[in-house]
Amino acid sequence: MTMLTPFPTQPLAARLPRTLPLLMGVGPTPIPEPVQRAHGLLINHLGPTMNGVVEAVQEMARYVFQTESRRVFGISGPGSAAMEMAMANLLWPGRRALVVVNGTFSARLAELGRRAGAEVAVLELEPGTGIDPAALAEVLDAQPADLVAMGQGETSCGAYHQRLPEAIAVAKARGALVVVDTVVTLSCMPFLADEWGVDVALTAGQKGLGSVPGVSLIAFNEASWAAVCARPAPPAQWVLDARLAERFWMDHQYHYTAPTPSLLAMYEALRLICEEGLEARWARHAAHSGALQAGLEALGLTLFAAPEHRLASAVAVRVPDGVDVDALRARMEDRHGVQIAGAFGLPIFRIGQLGEQCRRVPVLRTLSALGEGLVAQGYGEDAEAGARVAAELLGA
Ligand SMILES: *Cc1c(COP(=O)(O)O)cnc(C)c1O
Are the C-beta atoms of 76 and 218 separated by less than 8 Å? Predict the structure, then answer.
């Protein structure tokens, strides 16, 4: 018998910084204490205790999505798994989909549609811009689709579809089911699944909801569920088969072992959102993100998306000429313990305003760290200009 031999190891603490950085990227985001505590608990995945948790998660998720859909499921997996559940269950060879693409994540929706064997057309927008419903109508009239998919927000470039409700109406008037990715917007910016006619809404745990990564949520209304049930054959994905997920989420039967610690964390995250109330939470995001944006401009920076196409929850900033963004981000982390996000190819960096990031202290701390880092590279002279402006806007 040949075996690999054991080797010296280090406890995890030796690998982590003594103080974990403030997560001001675009996910994962800081989690509130009750979520942290819930995540430390392990219970059985079947039985009356878990059934009560599951039903409460569904009930709270209905409020957060603003839907009365019965079929609200959790998914053991990242936001991409929820995207895949939507696309893989609603598409199959012979189905036609149109995906509105303005960045990395919406492009992923298109890729998932292709992998499901569907014919996928793409309505491509400039990064940093949002949908024009008339353009969508034109494309759908020329090339009808069974399904239209888009993200409410595109995290990769900080873009927001301000006119999403009209775009949904355009798609539905032409007989398409509508899938909306709300990973970067849910609970941060207004989203009304039923009122807007969204057929499938999906989100992840680790962005605006303020939970841990690894559990996502999806809501199917009656129309999209009918399409799932009308499939000629089950999808290739067994874990993400929505009809198997229904067994667990509706009938409390075994599908696969549910990640109970992450579901308990999701429970607490949703409870905190219900407690705060959606309108108050949207207002908190608008106020703090507005202060952050004003602070960024006070530092002499330019925001990537125009105001009408700009996400509140993920703010993309142009990298000024002459600034080394990798060095800037490294300095912010090393000196100030603040992490912000880079980009996938665009000349921008990104700052999250998701959930707990939308508080006075993290916003001001981020602006101070950024200001100091910019001044250190010779960009601007007043490191505190941004924090001062934001503090004024946020009041005492
Ligand atoms: C982060 C994100 C995703 C992907 O979520 P993962 O958990 O990384 O799979 C999808 N869509 C949007 C809009 C996102 O911001």
Answer: no
What's the pLDDT score for residue 66? 98
Phi, psi dihedral angles at 265 (to 5 degrees): -65, -45
> How far is the C-alpha of 385 from the C-alpha of 301, rounded, in Å?
11
Predicted confidence (pLDDT) per residue in 16-74, tens digit: 999 999 999 999 999 999 999 999 999 999 999 999 999 999 999 999 999 999 999 99
| Ligand 1, atom 2: closest residue by C-alpha | 183
Amino acid at 357: Q
Nearest Cα to 318, choosing from 286, 287, 351, 288? 351
Report which ligand 1 atom has the smallest distance to the Cα of 83. Answer: 10
Which residues 6+ apart lie within 8 Å of 254 measured at CB?
46, 247, 248
Question: How far apart are the CA of 1 and the centre of ligand 1, in A?
Answer: 45
290 C-alpha vs ligand 1 centroid, how far in Å? 23
Indicate which atom in ligand 1 lies nearest the CA of residue 204: 7
Residue 104 confidence (pLDDT) above 80: yes
- Reported as a pLDDT band with limits 50, 70 and 90, residue 136 is very high
Q: What's phi and psi for 319, nearest 5 deg?
A: -75, 120
Nearest CA-CA partner of 350 in 320, 384, 313:
313
Residue 243: per-residue pLDDT: 98
Residue nearest to atom 3 of ligand 1 (CA): 79
Is the omega angle on the peptide bond into residue 28 within 30 degrees of 0, that is, cis? yes
How many whole angstroms separate alpha carbon 24 and alpha carbon 368? 13
0.85 exceeded by the pTM?
yes
